[in-house]
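The protein record quoted for completeness.
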Amino acid sequence: MRIPIKCVAILTLPIALAACAGGLPGFGDDGKSMSYTADRNGTNQPFPNNYRTDLLAFMKTYLNNPVGVHEAVVAEPVQRTVSGHVRYVACLRFSARESDGGYREPKERAILFVDGRLDRMAENAGELCAGAVYAAFPEMEKMTR
């Protein structure tokens, strides 16, 4: 009995796809966050000159309602080691208007930059924002839809 090549291909396709779906280190399955930008192999990261503008654009899409943000402060980006890579990190603290119209305690977020551009936000700023020196961020409090 001879098995046609088409049948062999159809039977081996799921095995090949399953191998592709397996977790690879550095792609999110190892507990680290995922990033879509390549590493610069230890070279210096450029300072994110437009970090305030980038933050405003990002927060306008991130927040359900960007209107009425209170107590917005930002810390200028500083270099920190994040998952073994040097990144510029800006810290942001604000109190957004909740769906019930009220406000909660201000939340602190760490914003990571790669190659001078906003890469991602870490909601658990903790150690990344330890010792951050904040300044008022009135542009964020004036955001509109």
About this structure: Residues 45-141 form one domain. The chain has a mean pLDDT of 81. The longest helix spans residues 5-21.
